[in-house]
Write a structure and sequence with these properties.
alpha/beta; Rossmann fold; five-stranded parallel sheet; four-stranded mixed sheet; 21% strand; globular
Length: 216
């Protein structure tokens, strides 16, 4: 590449897209559709101490570790954020996120309000936060019961926790009420497209504008 082409190149720093919601509001479905249709974004794989579900793959859905390993990672400051939820630990490893952002790749996070607050404190400039709301409480409970992944006792716990989780909606940049997946994914893509164009993320833009002003 010539010096002139170098001057006209604009690189983009990656962003961290956080999706949060109460369980059953549809953020997992939205996440999967976004990942399937947008090759510029990849999923941040969290570490967790909870048991693996039959449909899950280690290193793909989560990195499954024991409690001793997880606590060791905390001590070595290897997490961007971590939290304890329903007796299990969840956390975001720092190294793969830093590598992706520096390479101009975006990272998708499926984390709760506690984790989002920790990210706000550490990497606010790179963060875009979206809260997903269900259309109704009845619809939320129906989704939890029909997916048949948890016992009735766990569903009851999740419903009890949902009210508290939804009270933090105003701490997010954007809110989507997930009435139907097609509209919600369209809104999510619009948010992502706009955030990618923000001035702060276009590395090398000043050089590009300088070259334009000089007639190159």
């Amino acid at each position: 590449m010539s010096n002139e082409q170098d001057a006209l190149s604009i690189q983009r720093r990656g962003l961290m897209l956080v999706l949060s919601s109460p369980s059953g509001a549809g953020k997992t479905t939205l996440s999967r559709q976004l990942l399937d249709n947008d090759k510029q974004i990849q999923l941040s794989v969290s570490a967790t101490t909870r048991a693996r579900r039959p449909s899950e793959k280690d290193g793909v859905d989560y990195r499954f570790v024991d409690t001793v390993t997880f606590r060791g990672m905390i001590e070595r400051k290897q997490f961007l954020e971590y939290a304890e939820v329903f007796g299990n630990y969840y956390g975001t490893p720092r190294a793969p996120v830093d590598a992706a952002l520096n390479a101009g790749k975006d990272m998708l996070f499926d984390i709760d309000w506690q984790g989002t607050q920790q990210l706000q404190d550490k990497v606010k400039a790179d963060l875009v936060t979206v809260f997903i709301l269900p259309p109704s409480t009845r619809d939320l409970e129906k989704r939890l019961l029909t997916r048949a992944q948890d016992s009735k006792e766990v569903v009851a716990q999740r419903m009890a926790k949902a009210a508290d989780e939804m009270s933090h909606y105003d701490a997010y940049n954007y809110v989507i009420v997930n009435r139907d997946i097609v509209t919600s994914i369209s809104n999510l893509k619009a948010i992502l497209d706009a955030e990618r164009l923000k001035l702060q993320r276009q590395v090398g833009l000043s050089g590009f504008v300088k070259a334009l002003r000089e007639g190159r």
